[in-house]
Amino acid sequence: MPNRYPRDIEQRMKRAVAAWQTIDPAMQVGGLPVADLEAAIAHGEQIKSEMGALKAQMTELRNERDALHLSGWDLVKRLRRWVQSVYGEDSSEYEVVGGTRLSKRKPYRPRKRAAAPVAPGADQAET
Predict the structure, then answer these.
(1) At residue 22, what are phi and psi to the nearest 5 degrees?
(2) Strand partners, 29
(3) Which of 65, 67, 94, 109 could lock onto 99 through a cystine, CB 3.0 to 4.6 A?
(4) Model-wide pTM > 0.70
(5) How far is residue 55's CA from residue 37's CA, in Å, rounded to a whole number?
(6) Dihedral sign computed on CA atoms, order 55, 56, 58, 59
(7) pLDDT for residue 9
(8) Distance separating alpha carbons of residues 38 and 16, to the nearest angstrom
(9) Can you say whether residue 98 is alpha, beta or left, with left for phi > 0 and alpha for psi between -120 and 50 degrees?
(10) E strands, the chain, where?
(11) Any idea where the domains of the chain sit in the sequence?
């Protein structure tokens, strides 16, 4: 969902505080003093700082998860190779651990090479 405020809202809020201070620091808008806008800016900066720390923590956790998944995948491949060597490539045990039985694989067929495209005017003899 798109935000309902401009991307540069922090800068606009700071400019508004500076302008407010220039015009009349004691002025209140709708019963709210300039201090309320300043407090909102400070709270927003605090939240932004916390978000940065959480982003770094998320990156660290993702890296940890990826390392765990990689080691788990290595164990799965080892299990498949072990079952394949003990029971054979076409066994039901090999299929149970996630391998594709030899009898269920598509037969190998070499691909036909596409003809090389001919450049326009290449078939005409030079004069």
Answers:
(1) -70, -45
(2) 32
(3) 94
(4) no
(5) 27
(6) positive
(7) 92
(8) 10
(9) left
(10) none
(11) 9-101
Q: Which amino acid is at 85?
A: S
Which H or E run includes 87?
A: helix 34-87
The amino acid at residue 32 is: L
pLDDT at 32 over 80: yes
pLDDT band at 12 (very low <50, low <70, confident <90, very high): very high
Cα-Cα-Cα-Cα dihedral sign, residues 64, 70, 76, 82: negative
The tokens describing 51, both together, are 């978000």
Q: What is the DSSP string of 33-70?
A: -HHHHHHHHHHHHHHHHHHHHHHHHHHHHHHHHHHHHH
Amino acid at residue number 77:
K
Q: Which residues pair with 32 in a beta bridge?
A: 29
Given CA atoms 8, 10, 16, 21 in this order, what sign does their dihedral have?
Answer: negative
CA torsion sign, 50 to 55 to 58 to 60? negative
- DSSP annotation of 106: P
Tokens 């326009």, residue located = 120
